[in-house]
Amino acid sequence: MVKPLSFLKSKKWLLCTGIYLGCSMAPAFPPMAFANGERSEKPQQTKKTVRGKVLDENGEGLPGATVSIQSSGIGVATGLNGEFSLEASGSDIIVFKFIGYQDVTRPASALFGKEFSIRLEPEAKLLKDVVVTGFQEVDRKLFTGAAAFVSMKDVKIEGVPDASRMLEGRVAGVSVDNVSGSFGTAPRILIRGNASLNGSNKPLWVVDGVVVEDIVEVSSDDLSSGDARTLISSSIAGLNPDDIASFEVLKDASATALYGARAMNGVIAVTTKRGKSGRTSVNYSGSYSLRRRPHYGQFNIMNSQQEMSVYRDLVNKGWIDATTAARAKNFGVVGKMYDLIAKKQIPWDYDGLGNNDFLRQYEGANTDWFDLLFKDSFTQQHSVSLTSGNEKSRYYVSLGYLNDNGQTVADEVERYTLSTRADFNVTDKFDVGINLTGSIRDQKAPGTTSREFNAIDGTFTREFDINPLGYALNTARSMRPYDSDGELEYFRRNYAPFNIINELNNNYLGIDVMDLSLQADLKYAITDNLKISSTLQYRRAATRREHRIKDKSNQAEAYRANSTQIISDANQYLFTDPDKPNTNPQSILPSGGFYNLSENILDSYYVRNLISWDPKIGDAHEFAILAGQEIRLANRQESGFDGWGFQYERGGVVVTNPQAIRANVLNGNDYFDMREFRDRFMGLFFSAGYTFRQKYMLNFTTRYDGSNQLGKTNKSRFFPTWNVSGAWNISEEGFMESVDWIDRLKVKATYGLSGSMGPLTAAELDTRGVVPQRPTIGDRETVLAIQNLANEDLTWEKLNEFNAGVEFDLFQGRIGGGVEFYQRRSHDLIGYVETSGIGGQGNKLGNRFDMDSHGIELTLNATPLEIGDFSWATSVTWGYNKNEITSLDLAPTIASAVKAEGDAMLGKARRGLYSVRYAGLNNQGIPTFYGAEGKVVQEIYLQDRIDEFQELTYEGSVDPIANGGWVNSFRYGRFSLMVNITYRYGNKIRLNDLYPRSFDDFSALPKEFADRWALPGDEAVTDIPAIVDRRTDLNIGNAGVNPFQLYNKSDIRVADGSFVRLKNVTVSYTLSPALLERLGLRTGKISLQGNNLALLYSDDKLNGQDPEFFNSGGVALPVPTMYTMSVNFGF
Questions:
Q1: In sequence order, which ranges of 954-1072 are alpha helices (DSSP H)?
Q2: Cβ(760)–Cβ(200) under 8 Å?
Q3: Measured between alpha carbons, how far is 396 from 281 in angstroms, rounded to an integer?
Q4: Is the pLDDT of residue 122 over 90?
Q5: Paired strand residues for 954
Q6: Which element (helix H / strand E) includes 895?
Q7: Biggest alpha carbon distance in the chain?
Q8: pLDDT tens-digit profile of 531-548?
Q9: pLDDT digit string (tens) for 764-778?
Q10: What are the helix (H) ranges across 218-303?
Q11: DSSP 8-state class, residue 71
Q12: In which order are the strands placed within the sheet that holds 116-119?
């Protein structure tokens, strides 16, 4: 039956896709002609038949596509194989349309007399023309904020399972630091730098319109800590990159306005793939990656022969002898020799260090710890997806599998993912979308404890650290993993026998993660321009971390190391009964090991309701009005216990010494813990936009948010945000018609207020039960100790931002890009301030700090060359950001200021690096420094609080002030080549410590020691301090002021953090139609890719230290060089 066009227009929403790119003007039904039902008054022209096929992007026929005449709307729908036949006159323009594809127009005169095919491109190609904020989809041409579109096709790095790492160098103003290569650890991502002082500066992740809640709170600064919690810090670690269609990075207050008080740090909106109408298609993607192990040629570490020469010096200067070896916490080859001599297992030679024959077998060991602990590992990823649909329903189903056998002998990962999406046109006015996603992860990692900051010397420490990279870098190469009989060889660590292979086999983490979400999107069109919609989601995420510390592990053995009275007295892991202070320390773990369990459960509920009205007045005036509300409930539960006396070797019997529980209580440690968090959040929002002739755009957005995470008062818990923005499409003006080389030119500006909840805080008084030490048992009782004072007036952190920008396209799209300038003022930032002390604490959290920042962003895309089958496209991004603390009530200590992670100080960067001022070596080879008023000193007290820059020098920001990328893509025929280079500059890096707190023969030695001071006068030719004798060391330094420790924190141990990195290179080949036909495939592509290939430039002072990676131990591992082969086949 022939329907008039007016009827079809009333039904057009049936063919709208999930992304607003315009709608097909006719439903997809079997081939039939239709007309507009109106009588033409124009003279009839001679008509001819146009025949052809409509194909998809893979060359397959598209059934149900619309082929129509533009002026009249008369048209047909294509048949099962995409074929059509249509009568048209020579002056007609023919329009080809299909749901989810870009429209194509052709003059009929060019199509007469021949059969032809028209290939339509999918809507993914059109996403770049629409800003997807998560709440709404806005024509990019009319958008007034700062946003950047990134297609997954353009940035996908095969073999990398976490999509968040793929944004590095792709978006101006977005910094991506790969602080750890361990799976599950998020990269440190900053959008326009830091906005908070102590809170998280991580962006808000949004997937298909819903904010992704973090399972655990890990701030952007703590991502580099190496603690076990970082393994579940990535918001999208459970999302298969093959299921992602695109990213939209929302950067300024206008772009993020609808997210209100949660969007101060920017938003990354992820759009996942959906089903398409047409034939059922199956796609397979597989990648196979090889990761190369590190090697000693990359680092500045002595070999075993060089180490032995230093050991002789250490023996001669009293650092290592029979006495120190007997009480040493750690020892290597020389200490072991003295221990065996004391046990009379080997003789004493009086013409050498002790027993030269014993030492000689280790001098040539030159153990390659990298070869032993790392491996050339393989990772494989597989994804199978199915898409299908018709005009009433569309489906997408995907299954993914990742197997990573680990870059070390201590880690491995398996991950399974599921993504399903079903979209239904229930009626002419009602659409429903159902989305079910899930992931399961099983991971193994080296056992670790959390690091702690040592305020004495300004360093982080971690007990029982067995991180493979840290061990390889910091362990003497003269030590052997196996003895001459092929058995594991043990040395001493933590007063107990130690072998790294034994330890990794008996001390490890097991991580299980389950993440499941169900989402429903409901849309109802009251009229063509008045619509309501609802989004509902339930998500449950559960993680389980088991730390198994078995009976034979060094960590367990350390708690019962009492083989001699000397060790018993020195071992801090033994327990001295406070009621019997004169008795010998005793073991509270006489047998068995530890079983430590940590669990995190997240249940989140999300409801959002929207009403949108888009009226038009004539052709000149367009309005876009949006109002809505959202409610978010997140229930988090953290629980765990530390199990003592688990008998792994005896069938799992638990034998707990009661003194272990007592020791934990006396030390203020809970042997079990369970905490629940109830996060309640609501928001009301309104947005109004006006466009005049698509030239002038004005927009206003306001939002009112409330949260129970802050103070008690309404003023504290509720917070209004707002934004005003405007834009001018200059290229739409009449006076630009003659400027044919400018395709698009738009200027825009915005100003607004956004906010954040800041660091995790408590409105109520936070107390904990403790048992204080008192002389007699009868006087002891449990008391409540204040952990945090009440913060009834603690409120939101706030950010005022101004943004101005220019967007352009030139020379028919050959050149495009934009420039953005912004100024930001963060105020009411949360941090510690001094109190009177009356409440029981000297410091209290308060909204007392301010910070200013500004920046410039540049994006430039160009296609310099297109000749025949060859093309070259290039893209450059550059982002500059500088911040300054403008209000700070509590200055840090010197120890905090000199740490490698940096600290905040008034008038300087939020993460500024500070150093002791090195003044040279004295005539004994001892480092000296400039103290207050320029006086040369050997001692500076690191516990002093900094009020003036009298003793330290400001090096610069730890965070780069500029970063970006340069991507070049070349195509020739079916071959393509992509080269991605990333860079950053303007930051400083603290070099790894050169001098240990105390010398031993367990630790590796840097090659710089070969140039150390040896004789008076050497201070004129070297800056490497001497190894002084043990007595001198005790006389010249106290805790926190030792000059050798100050040397590690001095300005001579600082390097430039700038680098240029060849990030990845990809070569691809698309299979020819003839080959596809022979193989029975619809599509096919094969790619070879190298990732993290080389540092093209970095400071020579780094000596192999990666400028991105903090060697913090724990579970942190470097990002390795990786080579990947990938295939993609469609059926």
A1: 1030-1036, 1043-1048
A2: no
A3: 10
A4: no
A5: 914
A6: helix 894-897
A7: 120
A8: 999 999 999 999 999 999
A9: 666 666 656 555 444
A10: none
A11: T
A12: 83-89, 47-55, 116-119
What amino acid is encoded at 830 in this protein? I
| Distance in angstroms between the alpha carbons of the first and the last residue of the chain | 35
Distances, alpha carbon 689 to alpha carbons 623, 631, 722, 726, 788, in Å? 6, 24, 14, 9, 45
Using one digit for the tens of pLDDT, what is the confidence trace for 185-235?
Answer: 999 999 999 999 888 889 999 999 999 999 988 888 888 888 999 999 998
Whose tokens are 């009976």? That residue is 551
Encoded tokens for 663: 């020791």
Structural domains of the chain sorted by starting position, each given as residue range(s) with its CATH number in brackets = 5-121 (2.60.40.1120)
What single-letter DSSP state applies at residue 1008? G
Cα–Cα separations (whole angstroms), residue 1076 to 887, 1082, 1083, 1125, 1127: 65, 6, 7, 19, 13
Q: What is the pLDDT of residues 713-757, one digit of tens each?
A: 666 788 899 999 999 999 999 999 899 999 999 999 999 999 887
Rounded to whole angstroms, how far apart are CA atoms 66 and 53? Answer: 11
Could you tell me if 639 and 599 are in contact, meaning their C-beta atoms sit under 8 angstroms apart?
A: yes
- The beta strands (E) that lie in 251-353 are given as 267-272, 278-291
Spatial separation of the C-alpha atoms in residues 1053 and 995, rounded to whole Å: 11
Q: Please choose, from the candidates 314, 402, 309, 313, the residue with its C-alpha nearest in 3D space to the C-alpha of residue 362.
A: 309
Give me the pLDDT at residue 880, please: 97
Query: Above pLDDT 70, what percent of the chain?
Result: 90
Report the distance separating Cα 397 and Cα 506, nearest Å. Answer: 41
Residue bearing tokens 């931002």: 801
Token pair of 222, please?
A: 């703590």
The residue written with tokens 């991506």 in the block is: 176
CB atoms within 10 A of CB 436: 15
| Residue among 542, 585, 578, 540 nearest 562 (CA) | 585
The predicted-structure confidence for 1100-1129, as pLDDT tens digits, reads as follows 999 888 888 877 788 999 899 999 999 999
Q: Tokens at residue 709, please?
A: 């995470």
CA distance 462 to 450: 6
Contact 278, 64 (CB under 8 A): yes
Structure tokens at 744: 């698009």
CB half-sphere exposure, 797, CA atoms < 13 A: 29
In the block, residue with structure tokens 């209100």: 260
What pLDDT score was predicted for residue 635? Answer: 95
Q: Where is 118: in which H helix or E strand?
A: strand 116-119
Please report where in the chains the tokens 């491995």 appear, as a residue.
412
Lowest mean pLDDT among 208-222, 496-510, 512-526, 544-558: 208-222
Whether residue 828 contacts residue 846, with contact meaning beta carbons closer than 8 Å, is answered with no
Output helix, strand, coil percentages for the chain, rounded to the nearest 5: 15, 45, 40
Q: What is the pLDDT of residue 7?
A: 33
Residues 1063 and 1093 sit within 8 Å (Cβ to Cβ): yes
Please tell me the distance from the alpha carbon of residue 628 to that of residue 530, in angstroms, as a whole number.
14
What distances in angstroms separate CA 574 from CA 451, 581, 584, 595, 1005, one per listed residue? 21, 13, 9, 19, 31
Residue recorded with tokens 């559960």: 542
Please tell me whether residue 668 adopts helix, strand or coil conformation: coil
Instruction: For residue 892, give the nearest of 816, 855, 946 by alpha carbon.
Output: 946
